[in-house]
Give the backbone structure.
Amino acid sequence: MADKAIVATPNAPAAIGPYSQAVKAGGFLFVSGQIPLDPATGEVVPGPIEAQARQVMENLRAILAAEGLEMSRVVKTTIYLANLEHFAAVNEVYGGYFTADPPARVTVEVSRLPKGVGVEIDAIALLA
């Protein structure tokens, strides 16, 4: 079995279940789905979907930074939306974090997300 290492940082929300913030394996960093939790308080960020999307992206960025990576190292994301009508608003925020050569992506509408949030995003990034 290939080596794997768990990644954790206090600069992103702690896992709220039996999973890791991220796992390094096979030259990749697999970042668990992030929801709009403020890492300092553990509470959902209030406000519109844009504020939620921004916090999610900042949480992803913090986990990548814990491994010395930038957003440009992300090769794949999945966006989970509680309401697909928020697609354009989330897409605008998301696009601000990937200004050149954006990663491959899937966006799906789901019936519910943890803590009743409107958006969750996971990511896969290249380590080297």
Q: What stands out?
A: The chain has two helices and six strands. The CA atoms of residues 49 and 86 lie 7 Å apart. The chain has one domain: 4-126. The longest strand covers residues 74-81.
